[in-house]
Amino acid sequence: MSTTRPLDAAIVGIGQTDFSKDSGRSELQLAAEASLAALADAGLGVSDIDGMVTFSVDPTEDVELMRVLGVPSLGYSVRLPHGGGGSGATVYHAAAAVATGAARHVLVYRALNARSGRRFGQPRDPGAAPSVGSGWSFAQWYAPYGALTPAATLSMHAMAFMSSHALSNEDFAEYVVGIRDFAATNPSAWFHNRPITFEEHQASRWIIEPVLRLLDCCQETDGGVAFVVSTVERARDLRQRPAVVLGAAQGVGAADVAGRVYAQAGVGPTDLDAAMVYDAFSVEVFSSLEDLALCPRGEVKDFVASGAIRRGGIVPVNTNGGLIGEGYLHGMNLLTEAVRQVRGTAANQVAGARHVLMSSGRGACILGGET
Amino acid sequence: MSTTRPLDAAIVGIGQTDFSKDSGRSELQLAAEASLAALADAGLGVSDIDGMVTFSVDPTEDVELMRVLGVPSLGYSVRLPHGGGGSGATVYHAAAAVATGAARHVLVYRALNARSGRRFGQPRDPGAAPSVGSGWSFAQWYAPYGALTPAATLSMHAMAFMSSHALSNEDFAEYVVGIRDFAATNPSAWFHNRPITFEEHQASRWIIEPVLRLLDCCQETDGGVAFVVSTVERARDLRQRPAVVLGAAQGVGAADVAGRVYAQAGVGPTDLDAAMVYDAFSVEVFSSLEDLALCPRGEVKDFVASGAIRRGGIVPVNTNGGLIGEGYLHGMNLLTEAVRQVRGTAANQVAGARHVLMSSGRGACILGGET
Question: Is the pTM of this model over 0.90?
């Protein structure tokens, strides 16, 4: 065990429900099912849980989840801002809970009926107050210009990035074909067994021309994901091979966060065996790859085109199919995929994966096997 | 500096706006004003802030407050559940941020227009979804019985406590007269210069008979409160005498939280020189005093009647006038009062105060001067 590791923590169990367009059950139930699956995976019981972390926008109250699961007490409970962008920060906060002794085993959960309930991708009522903690207060600056969906507001920024990087939607097709290839061989993915061709991508209708076509966008998904964080020492007694938290941080901006996580972990971009990068929309991955220093600034177009992030590439990205291919679980299913890669149990396993990054812009972590 | 102190942190600056029934400005502005006041008090600049903590229900986004203040980056940002009950947990989370190195100076803020905006005490629409993270998901169990306000739901529990402890509303009058005495000599209090008599309390109209009269209830208040948490070492270079975090914890239930905070601090109930105890309603203090072990179980009626928690008592409680007398800033103004007592600058200063507890049920801390 490294003495320089700043956070003594590991992800010891992961769980999820089915991912669908109509779960047929409440978000509370989805959260409970995912939580029980994560506990069973870890070999822990409900009464071992004494901390919880979720998103500001998650509808399931900690005390309600305590009640339905039977968790006896909590020494730690937080909600993280910035919607799915905050998913990468959950690991830092759970690790801080165990590092300071406030909790022994922290349950991180997120469950949403984002398709059968309130649809995330639909236009927002410009007169409605944004959800507290969603990070959508900025919508007031976009609404007067008619930009009322995540796709629309994101594309205003993406246009500038595309211009400076000579990117077109055809470049995004390269990325999407690659992750649909991963999804096709991942039984948990919505698009299991449904790979696409470049031509199929280019034939899909525009959502925001000239940035995003239909196949560049994640689908609104119903489902739940949970995982459990414990100390490394406790992890050794549990059922699974621990996914050790080599570095974990929260911040505002992928480059800032990644820099701190690399420094903590003593692991640089070239040491990564795989990376999970938030992709509600394809274009997000292109700017993130540069922010994460996975390729030099200005070179992302050629980097992606080279196949570097595809199956068999030098650093496969979103090996579960990403949020676009597996399901939009608000970033949480990128974290569980990072755990599977470190365990060696991913559907699209990268042989010998030792260092796996997950980044969602407002948070990131590097997981690894215990050395 | 004690080597057994689990959290190396201190509150180094406090700030607040005026407390009113019509602030005439946005909650974002109130948050900014309180934040700048806290920074000025500490002798810190906006660019020193790199962490933020607020409530799940606070309408001010961290990124909006960054923008209006000019905070360059954040390494830590959380929102705490359980409404005002979570206020006592803010200190633990800010301390965890500096303890793990995620931030150097954490700004804790809360601003609300709870009177001129959405009134907290008014009946909730039983068909409306509760605010996420408010802890009000339980309201679904009360609404069918017509209990739609905080006063009504609380009183259902209070009836049982009053029965088992032989308490009547006349006992609560003793408490309220005492804190209105404190408020009368606190220039920041809404009820400055307005003490009440026992008879005046008993003449006020029932809100929930036989539990709460008008003068047992806090008033919905507009205003903002902020404070800054840093490491003890950094605190020594700043403007104010540090209010050292001797213990701080979060939990579900005052007795559980208090037990952990006393253990951390190595300070017991009899060592306390003053205590700040969440009092949206008078009756809450009675159960809390027993949960906090400030008096033996079953004896709170006689304990309060003895004058123990009044001016000059053995452990004065809510020396600013409490949430009922000073203003309902969702518990945050009890934390700033605890800081003032430790500094020796409170309007109703307890001579030589060395150990001051703040408890809000879902969180607590003990502050002290550096030894």
Answer: yes
